[in-house]
Specification:
Layout (H helix, E strand, L loop, with lengths): L1 E5 L3 H13 L3 E5 L2 H8 L7 E5 L7 H10 L7 E6 L4 H9 L4 E4 L4 H33 L9 H18 L3 E8 L2 H8 L1 H17 L6 E6 L2 E7 L3 H17 L2 E3 L2 E3 L3 E8 L7 H17 L5 E3 L3
Parallel strand pairs: 1-2, 1-3, 3-4, 4-5, 11-12
Antiparallel strand pairs: 6-8, 6-11, 7-8, 9-10
Length: 303
């Protein structure tokens, strides 16, 4: 773990650095608070910080306050090093945002233990952050296919529809439904059906733009949200998806499973006012028409 030392005393800084290197830490060192602030503004900077109280330009207390008020998602564990040892000074340092406080001269073993405490807290915080990220991902994504779930893809559509309205832009949606999917489950089993859904979702993602979104609308139905996409561009994307899914069978346990999909396209034209429900309904109606007209095809809601 990286540790940043900010101390204008060259000898004191060298002593602390030697101890940290001995204990296996990676060390960054600066001689004043301004230099420390410039480094710590970066979210990828050291999270464990040793600050001298008295420094030119910006002292340890002011730097602590700035870090706590910066509003970044990165937490820095701050230990103040100082010769001040009154209760008022200790309270002042902690109120400024420091996590811990060591008076000079210090016992090396005490510093090592306090650094371990800081590292343990930072490690626990990182674990919590990662757990929250996992929960957030699971709340937004379909567990089987990994693409957005029903709720999130509609949230995305609502945001993009609002953006299109404000910017007077286009927005296309494509509703897709696998053809005769029940037959796949009945013939090869539900595990094979799951494998088909996963592969189809992957092929769809591979054939849309980086800023487009793909979601599992329900069962074997998918919804694609294509911001800033004209009708002509959406038709090209839809045809790519049709070809990608139909030209190669899905391989499951050495069995080749032929898969096709039907697509319904609806486009919100620039300047048009339409709701999410209405746009999805248009795409769904076009999808139903594609099914009626023979499947493995795309139909457009309106010319």
């Amino acid at each position: 773990m990286k540790v940043l030392i900010a101390d204008d005393d060259t000898i004191s800084r060298a002593v602390v650095k030697a101890l940290l290197l001995k204990w296996g830490y990676e060390v960054l060192e600066v001689e004043d608070g301004k230099q420390a602030w410039d480094i710590l503004k970066d979210n990828d900077s050291s999270h464990l910080v040793l600050l001298d109280w008295m420094m030119p330009g910006m002292d340890g207390l002011e730097l602590s306050r700035r870090l706590r008020q910066s509003g970044t998602n990165t937490y820095h564990y701050i230990i103040l090093l100082t010769g001040r040892d009154s209760k008022e000074d200790i309270i002042g340092g902690l109120n400024a945002g420091a996590d811990d406080y060591i008076t000079k001269p210090f016992i090396p073993e005490e510093l090592e233990l306090r650094l371990r405490t800081g590292k343990r807290i930072l490690d626990l915080q990182q674990s919590l952050k990662e757990a929250l990220e996992v929960q957030r991902f699971q709340a937004q994504h379909d567990r089987l296919t990994g693409i957005f779930n029903h709720v999130e893809i509609l949230n995305i559509l609502e945001k993009e529809l609002d953006r299109a309205g404000r910017q007077n832009g286009n927005l296309a949606v494509i509703m897709g439904d696998l053809d005769r999917f029940k037959k796949v489950n009945d013939t090869y089993g539900h595990v094979a059906g799951d494998a088909v859904l996963v592969e189809v979702a992957a092929r769809m993602k591979n054939n849309i733009r980086l800023y487009d979104s793909a979601g599992r609308y329900g069962g074997e139905e998918f919804l694609l949200v294509l911001p800033g996409c004209t009708t002509e561009e959406a038709i090209i994307i839809a045809n790519r998806i049709l070809e990608s899914i139909s030209k190669e069978p899905v391989i499951f346990n050495n069995t080749l499973i032929k898969v096709t999909i039907s697509l319904g396209l609806a486009v919100n034209r620039a300047g048009e006012t339409i709701t999410v429900t209405e746009l999805v309904q248009l795409a769904d109606t076009a999808l139903y028409k594609a099914k009626q007209n023979g499947r493995n095809r795309m139909e457009q809601a309106r010319a």
